[in-house]
Each structure stands twice: as structure tokens, then as C-alpha cells.
């Protein structure tokens, strides 16, 4: 995990714009944040080099990929020892439906973000991942009705 980076207002402004669209040309970024194009390019290169920007990705509409259904799952485990956590995380990494997973504190142990093609596909996922795993104590399902558009992606 990275420690807090020493970011100034220009870095934060650049990151804000790059999170919204990392394909924005340096010329436009320079105009938007009040720097020269060369300064923007240098700062963005340093943000990547220093691990502040960890990936450049394309966000693809889930329906195009055949996975229009977004489901959040709250999972509680029986045991949270190192071996049990590592085993569960390996299972999560092996499943293409799992688009995000967070080990959390509170009433549950994991919060999962899934993209699936149908409720039937989700039922299969739950049987294979949760019902067949003796370390899964319980899980709760939250089905997304619609996504609020226009928010920054994490």
C-alpha cells in the first residue's frame, strides 16, 4: 500500500481530470489547470513513476460484455485466519464475475462487486462460491436497479 503522496493543488487538479477521462490531451489539461503543456506532461509522468497513478484503463459498458447485472454481496466468514483469508481471496481472483472485492471491518468481512449476465448466473456463482464453501458463514445480496451516472469511478 502506498503512503500518502505529497501532492499539490496542480497534481490534485490533474488527477481529478484524469480520473474522469485519462485520454484528455495534455494541451487541454494544461488549459484546465493553468500550467504549460510540458509541465502537465512532466507531472503526469512523475505521478505514474511514483505509483500515484497505478493504471490507465478503459471502462467498458457491462451490457456490451454480456454482463448487464451488477450485484453487491456482503460476505461473512466463519474464520478469518491468514490461511482462510488467503484461500477465499484466491477463489475471488479466479472468478471473472468478481470485479472488485474489499476486506472490511464491521458486520461483514468482505464486500464484493459482481457483474453477471443473469440471476441464473448469479445463482450458480453463489452455489459454487458460497454454499459449497464451509468457511462462508453467510452472505447478503444487493441487486443494483440502476447506476447513478456521472460519478467518478474509483
TrEMBL record:
Pfam families noted in UniProt: AsnC_trans_reg, HTH_24
SUPFAM superfamilies listed in its UniProt record: Dimeric alpha+beta barrel (SSF54909), Winged helix' DNA-binding domain (SSF46785)
Domain HTH asnC-type as annotated: residue spans: 7-68
Alphabetical keyword list: DNA-binding, Transcription, Transcription regulation
Coiled-coil stretches noted in the UniProt entry, renumbered to this chain: none
Molecular-function annotations in GO: sequence-specific DNA binding
This protein's GO CC annotations: cytosol
Key word Cytoplasm present: no
Name this protein carries in UniProt: Lrp/AsnC family transcriptional regulator
Amino acid at each position: 500500500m502506498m503512503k500518502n503522496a505529497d501532492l499539490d493543488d496542480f497534481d490534485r487538479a490533474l488527477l481529478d481530470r484524469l480520473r474522469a477521462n485519462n485520454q484528455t490531451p495534455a494541451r487541454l489539461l494544461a488549459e484546465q489547470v493553468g500550467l504549460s503543456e510540458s509541465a502537465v506532461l512532466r507531472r503526469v509522468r512523475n505521478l505514474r513513476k511514483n505509483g500515484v497513478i497505478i493504471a490507465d484503463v478503459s471502462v467498458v459498458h457491462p451490457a456490451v460484455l454480456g454482463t448487464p447485472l451488477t450485484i453487491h454481496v456482503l460476505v461473512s466468514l466463519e474464520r478469518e485466519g491468514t490461511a482462510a483469508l488467503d484461500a477465499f481471496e484466491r477463489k475471488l481472483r479466479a472468478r471473472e464475475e468478481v470485479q472488485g472485492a474489499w476486506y472490511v471491518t464491521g458486520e461483514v468481512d468482505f464486500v464484493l462487486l459482481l457483474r453477471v449476465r443473469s440471476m441464473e448466473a448469479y445463482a450458480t456463482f453463489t452455489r459454487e462460491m458460497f454454499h459449497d464453501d464451509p468457511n462462508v458463514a453467510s452472505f447478503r445480496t444487493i441487486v443494483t436497479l440502476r447506476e447513478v451516472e456521472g460519478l467518478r469511478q474509483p
